[in-house]
Specification:
alpha+beta
Length: 424
């Protein structure tokens, strides 16, 4: 007997309809993963890798090839008259006016004053700025999820209550029909209730359309079909536990400041001397011996020290520009925090308003229900019209709808506050 009971239980479970659940936190993650802009993260990382690789190649030997052919209007000559000193027939060699040269130069940096290191640091901080900027853009998706998610919940709650209203009106129709048979009510009383029942069905169609529209938009946003079997989980109305501001914009400001400071290190590196080795091999006419007017191979090798002192002229202004940029970002950060604090205060006031409204909703609903029941009793005694009864029915349902709206507005206000501060 026990085995049959267990088998029957599992059979019921296997045939029971399975309803998937979807939370708002899951929607955040799915919307983020589905948003086309998320591909930009990979592109930023690849660009950073390419740039860092190119910068590191500055330590490799740099090879340069050059070739030229020239014709000179005049060449160097030794101004000595050999005939006058008795050296008749002796000629001093001269250089041809047409000259040719091909060279292959190799330069190896020994010390660049930290230029490559500072450039790589700047590239990393710029990539971080791009990533933090992407974080800011992606974070705005949460606000759109909030609007659609709570839009669906509100439409579904209104639909459920609308069904209760229709059931209430149908029950009233049946009662008034029996009253008409007993001569207590008139046909006009029944017609008045039927009109309100039709209006309730109209409202149901509007709620259904709104629900489908919000579900469709939310489906597109998260990249996943949300069917009727999927139930959106109603979150708890709990305020954020902390008032700390964790918005991604703050990380963006810090990344921008780090990038400017990295640029400042490039200015310092640009003022340093550069030391390196060089080897140059060539073939031309003339070679290194300018008086040997033949094609000949040659080479040069040595150590080169260079120091561009021109950067000293603009050093102060360049650094002042960076400091000005840092102060500008700090001002933007302070402005953002100030505006956010105002927004937080406003949203907290909105939450308090809905909490206060909900304190009275249950009492209003109870009183409206008491008035409706009294009207039903009067209708049964033939002392109240159908129009007056439907008025009291609608008054009760309106109070219930107000509570539903206040609950959803409170939830959305709490999650909007979470969005403003990025807190849970």
């Amino acid at each position: 007997m026990r085995i049959k009971t267990i088998t029957f239980f599992f059979a019921l479970v296997s045939y029971a309809p399975c309803f998937a659940q979807l939370s708002i936190e899951a929607c955040y993650e799915k919307a983020r993963a589905n948003y086309p802009l998320i591909k930009q993260y990979g592109l930023i990382e690849k660009t950073k890798e390419y740039n860092l690789s190119n910068a590191a190649k500055g330590y490799l030997p740099q090879v340069t090839f050059s070739a030229q052919a020239t014709y000179q209007s005049d060449v160097t000559e030794i101004p000595i008259d050999l005939d006058a000193i008795g050296l008749t027939g002796v000629k001093i060699p001269s250089v041809s006016q047409d000259q040719y040269k091909m060279e292959l130069a190799l330069n190896q940096t020994l010390w660049d004053g930290g230029a490559i290191r500072s450039e790589r640091k700047t590239l990393r901080t710029q990539a971080e700025v791009d990533q933090r900027d992407m974080d800011v853009s992606m974070y705005t998706i949460n606000e759109r999820v909030n609007q659609l998610y709570f839009g669906v919940l509100l439409a579904e709650a209104q639909l459920e209550q609308n069904k209760v209203l229709q059931a209430e009106l149908r029950r009233s129709c049946e009662q008034v029909s029996s009253y008409i048979k007993n001569g207590i009510a008139q046909q006009s009383d029944l017609d008045a209730i039927r009109v309100d029942l039709l209006k309730a069905k109209q409202t149901e169609a509007q709620f259904e359309h709104t629900k489908r529209a919000y579900r469709e938009m939310l489906s597109r946003l998260i990249g996943e079909e949300i069917g009727e079997e999927t139930r959106l989980v109603k979150p708890e109305a709990v305020r954020p536990l902390t008032k700390e501001n964790n918005r991604p914009e703050l990380e963006l400001y810090q990344a921008q400041i780090r990038n400017l400071r990295a640029q400042d290190s490039r200015i310092t590196a640009g003022m340093m001397p550069k030391l390196g080795l060089f080897v140059t091999g060539g073939y031309g006419k003339p070679g290194l011996d300018m008086f040997e007017d033949n094609f000949k191979a040659y080479y040069l090798a040595g150590v080169r020290l260079s120091w561009n002192l021109g950067s000293l002229y603009t050093r102060k202004n360049d650094r002042r520009k960076i400091q000005t940029g840092i102060r500008s970002i700090e001002t933007q950060r302070e402005t953002f925090l100030f505006n956010t604090s105002l927004d937080v205060a406003q949203r907290n006031a909105t939450i308090d308003k809905y909490i206060d409204q909900l304190k009275y909703d249950d009492e209003i609903i109870a009183l409206r229900g008491s008035v409706k029941r009294a009207s039903e009793a009067k209708m049964a005694n033939g002392t109240l019209s159908g129009t007056d009864l439907t008025r009291d029915i609608h008054a009760e349902q309106s109070a219930i709808q107000d509570k539903i709206l206040h609950e959803m507005e409170l939830l959305q206000a709490i999650y909007n506050l979470k969005y403003v501060t990025n807190n849970k």
